[in-house]
Each structure stands twice: as structure tokens, then as C-alpha cells.
Amino acid sequence: MENLKRRKKVSISQIIIHLIFILACIFCILPILLVLSISLTDESVIYQNGYHLIPEAFSLDAYKYILSGSSPVLNSYLVTAIVTIVGTVVHLYLTSMLSYGLSRKEVKYSRALSFYVFFCLLFSGGMLPWYILLTKYLHLKDTIFVLIAPYLVSSVNVLIMKNFFKGIPNSIVEAARIDGSSEYNTFFKIVMPISKPVFATIGLFVAVFYWNDWMTCSLFINNTKLYSLQFLLQSIMDNIAYLQGNPMLEKIGTKLPDETARMATCILAILPIAVAYPFIQKNFEKGLTVGAVKE
């Protein structure tokens, strides 16, 4: 009887927990569905009847406007994709190599270098020296490299990876050395395969940062062919707001998509990250805890 009561209590508690998580998922999914529905609805219907989860009058005008020849979104997609892929790969390479070196006790001055990394985490030179360095001395203004180079190493990610690598048994590395493996071979063929969780986690964080970065483009890029997606979409929205107030459009009876275009830009911006996330979800969940706490 007592065992049955315990099972009932456990089952009830599990049901409650599942219900809580189901409600949380619904609250997260509903706004995205609403944004998608608005982006696929005719602009006039939005103003007349408000928002609905199911489009009352289906329309692709917002996407046609954003993807039209006057708005080079596809080119910006390509630029942002290149920046995100190259930046993420190089960031993981440099960060992991530095972190692995700092995690090894036999590396000379590893503690001093770790303190230097931690010091950079707390203090920075500020935006003005950063701007002068990239434009006057490195001459990266109006190049695609200025969207990648400033963020190739992160102190936070270095410390997280360092703590993760410290958790790898030293006997594995020593056994590889005894077998004649070089340091590079040990790192790439032994350490990296068992470090997928931390690579996936940091890789996702870095990729999302590169994908959503618009401030760097606004500071250093004047060439429209190098506009990032986020900066271009913001420019499109500013142009829509400007054109909406143009009296010439009102005279000829032309109305540009405003609210629907805003929602369409949100869908276009989050689509690649939303598609990529399920493929690294397992490693991402594990990497959030592994390596984040120093024992």
C-alpha cells in the first residue's frame, strides 16, 4: 500500500512538472507563431482586425519587399553567413589552443598568462582606442575582416574551455605522449573528440553573436555590399518608416508593408539559428554545465 501511495505521489509530481514545462514551451512558441502569422498577413487586414495566430488574408508582400532587388538581403545573407562560419571556426581554433595551453601544468608561466586573460575580462581599453586600432593601424575599415577579427578570442570562453580541459584525465595525454604523439596530434585527435560539448556550446554562443552583430557594421562599414544582415534589416525598417511619411506615396495611393515587414525581418533573422540549433542541442545542453564550474 505504501509503495502504491509513493508511486501515485511520484506520478502526480511528474505530471505537474511536465505540465509546467509544456506551458513554458507554449509561451515560448506562441510569440514566434504570432510573428510568423503577422508576416504572412495582408497589411490592411492587420490594421483593421488586429493580430491573429492564423492569417486572415494571406500575403507575401512583406517578403517580396524585403527580398526585392532594391533590398539586397540575399547578398547580406551571404556576407553574414561567411562572417559567422569563418569567425566561429577561427574563434574556436584560437580559443581552444590558448585554453589547452593554459590548462597544462607543464606550460611555463601558465598562471601568469591565465591572470592576464582574467585581467582582460575585467578591464578593456574602451571603444575609442579599439576604433583607432582597427582603422588607423590595422586598416580594416570597409573590409569583411573587420566584422571577424575583433572577436576571435574571448576571455570568458578561454576560461570556460580551460576549466573543461583541466577535467580531462592527465593519464590520457601522458599515454599519447608515451606512444610518440606530438602535442598537436594529441590535441586534435584525442582532446578535441572528447571535448565536443564545450565546443558545441561556445560555438553556438559565438555563432549567435556573429549572426546578430550589427554595431560593428554600423561603425566600420560604408560599402553597401558588405552590410551584415542585421544592419541591413535595420536600414530597411528605417527606410520603411521614412517612406511611410512621404506625401508622394499617399498621393499615388501606394502603401508599403510596415508592421508585416517588421515581423518578416524577425523571421528572416532567426531562421538560420533556429534551423541549426536542433543539430547541436544534445552537446549544447551538456556543455552548459561541464567546464563552467571549477572543482
Overview of this structure, please?
- This protein has a domain of 206 residues: MetI-like fold (Orthogonal Bundle).
- It is built from 15 helices and no strands.
- The protein starts with a helix and ends in an 8-residue tail after the last helix.
Report on the biggest sheet.
none
Poorly predicted regions are 248-254, 291-295
Write down the Rg.
Answer: 25 Å
Counted beta strands:
0
As a percent range, the share of helical residues equals: 55-70%
How are the elements arranged and paired?
Blueprint: H1 2-39, H2 43-49, H3 61-66, H4 73-103, H5 110-122, H6 127-137, H7 155-166, H8 170-178, H9 183-191, H10 196-212, H11 215-220, H12 229-244, H13 247-252, H14 259-276, H15 281-287
Helix pairs in contact: 1-14, 4-7, 4-10, 4-12, 5-7, 8-9, 10-15, 12-14
Describe the structure using short key phrases.
295 residues, mainly alpha, disordered C terminus
Give a quick summary of the entry:
With 295 residues, this protein is mainly alpha-helical. Helices cover 70% and strands 0% of the residues. Helix 4 packs antiparallel against helix 12.
